[in-house]
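ping. complex inputs:
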Amino acid sequence: MSEKVTEAVILAAGWGRRMGKRGPKPLLRVAGREILYRTFSSLRAEGIERFVLVVHPDHRADFEGFLKAHGLDARFVNNPEPERGNGYSLHLARDEVSGPFVLVMGDHIYGERFVERALRGEGLAVDPAPRYIDRDEATKVRLRDGRVTEIGKAIPNPDAYDTGFFVLEPSIFEVTEALAREKWGFELAEVVERAGLPAYPVPEEFWLDVDTPQDLRRARALLVAQAVKGAGDGIVSRLVNRRISTRISRLLVDRLTPWQATWTTAAVGLLAAGLNFVSPVAGAVLYQVSSILDGVDGEIARAALRTSALGGWVDSVLDRYVDVTYLLTLAVTSRLPEGLWPVVALALLGSVLVSYSTERYKAAFGRDIYREIPLMRFLPGKRDERIFLTMILVLMGLVPELFWTLAVITHLRVLVTLLLGARGETA
Amino acid sequence: MSEKVTEAVILAAGWGRRMGKRGPKPLLRVAGREILYRTFSSLRAEGIERFVLVVHPDHRADFEGFLKAHGLDARFVNNPEPERGNGYSLHLARDEVSGPFVLVMGDHIYGERFVERALRGEGLAVDPAPRYIDRDEATKVRLRDGRVTEIGKAIPNPDAYDTGFFVLEPSIFEVTEALAREKWGFELAEVVERAGLPAYPVPEEFWLDVDTPQDLRRARALLVAQAVKGAGDGIVSRLVNRRISTRISRLLVDRLTPWQATWTTAAVGLLAAGLNFVSPVAGAVLYQVSSILDGVDGEIARAALRTSALGGWVDSVLDRYVDVTYLLTLAVTSRLPEGLWPVVALALLGSVLVSYSTERYKAAFGRDIYREIPLMRFLPGKRDERIFLTMILVLMGLVPELFWTLAVITHLRVLVTLLLGARGETA
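pong. complex structure:
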């Protein structure tokens, strides 16, 4: 499509009966955000500026309230008879678009990369091997020479699956006009077949539709799983912490804000430090628990499209304080020999400087050192690894050995970071 | 000028006799960089892509070597008779420009903001009150209705001063053509008067010309003075350190690279830490010396247009290590009571976390917190202030009090930084 697409029609007139009495499906919150918010957000990111919403008049007030709450704007088209089919819903929008436009289903969730790639096509976006939907329930297509020859739920051995995402020319309304003259109601499938619409593959990207409460739960789990950032994750995070934290995030993403998760995690960490005065063993275990919880705020924020630079900043400074406070109370309550205190001080500083060196890199270069220098990901001594090691050595009663080990690995890590950074920059 | 200016003619055929036998003036290094490099750099930053250099054939090899060494490109115009005047030099470039162009003198140094503003005008850029040149020696202009009516060195009570920076149309060559027919040689002043060239003011920006060895020294001092960054400077830096460091930078800017200055400063800081084992008083004084030297690498780098993100990053991590090592050796050699060690650890950590909190802000927001939240500049506890306080309290023998003070002010500062940052972000 040579002309830039800046308009979108979103079909949101369906009732979603299988979801129970929860209001219109596009306004359902999945992982902390309405489906429709996600659609608006990803389309706007790709340059779509004008939105047309086809809705049932009974729900119009709900949609208007949603748009107002998020400072969004759209024109409405009423469809008081959704039983006439989603082809007819599209037909009703015919006077509201002026150029090539995107057509999307209001109950589908699309990943950002899906939208980015799908917008470059022309016709119907299809997925040869969808990974996230119930294929039995899905609409299938048969293709020939890049065009749809057959579309429906009951096609055996289909060539691909209908993603519900179209890039169309206004000439599509000549087809809907003809169909509207012939019959009272018709589906998009009939429009597609009649138009002999081109189809283009958008494989291996995230998209799914939400039909049942089970779909909703699966969508939430997938959105949380995709929200794992992971660039700075150590081996303990990958093998242990993330497996637990994503389960917690799944439970909490619709109930907790990222800020609440950040403060709760910091509180648990400081509680672990305080526990050292009662039982260093209990403190060490709770410290590891706080390390697991530390993933939750970021996962919730990314899954719910609620990330903020402020949140990342405060979380990061709080992490440093939790580490410092925990190690300091551990050193105090362990009654270490006086001569060990310089080692304790070096271990504490090292734990801060590991983070300082990578964050200061980002401040200097505006880029993430883990993306820039992939070798960094394999360098041991990340926070999750240090905390896990701390728990193990405290449980074994090896507190002096712990401080020696931390002092050595953290400063070695900073040294290697500097060397890798300098090599990467001068190479 | 509606059309975008993308060409520049640089007059570099003069001999610069008053400078002694140092080769052509535009290739003189001032504060670590050739004058011509500065001109290329600031013009390229403003979108100039094609350069014409008018040079004496005897110097052409020098200029070619300079361009090659810096990966720059220019077309050459030979002027074997510079004694025919700089108006004639301009005339020789007539076949090499195709649209509106910048004309600059090869022995003038212009600040980046000067070039940015001067490029928006049309005709001759003039300065109503130049601050950095010898006004007696300068070329003056008299103006009427925005045009030059008189130009020369001997004009009493001039309206403004000739900056040697022009934005011209190719039609100027009709004027030089006429003059070339009339006389053997002519100056730019004659071209300006004959053309009745428009003049536009570019006041209060940095520019100067280099005629004598004294000019060279003054230019170097001014470039170093302008290279003080200062956003994160505390009161000790402003009142003491910068006054000394700029003098050192002036001496060293033509002799030392920023990297050499960075490593030397770090070595002096670590030497101060080592001195604690011999004499804490000497160590404290040398620590303050290293704090003064800490300004030199940045000043040299900015004055010589040699800043690098890598340099800033490494310098910043080294600073943290110098602080940590100094305070740690001070604590060890002062034989503090054991109960004070947690305070020592907090003081050390605080000194790192002050920097961590502001650098992590930049990593998160991509902006400098000192620019974003001006109140931050008045918050005490910056590195220069902590080091000065350290020296004073060590000289007074108050080491335990020093660690208490550092522990309290650094962590208070981090707390206030977080509060100000959060308020600025949510306001």
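Residues 10 and 412 of chain B are 55 Å apart (CA to CA).
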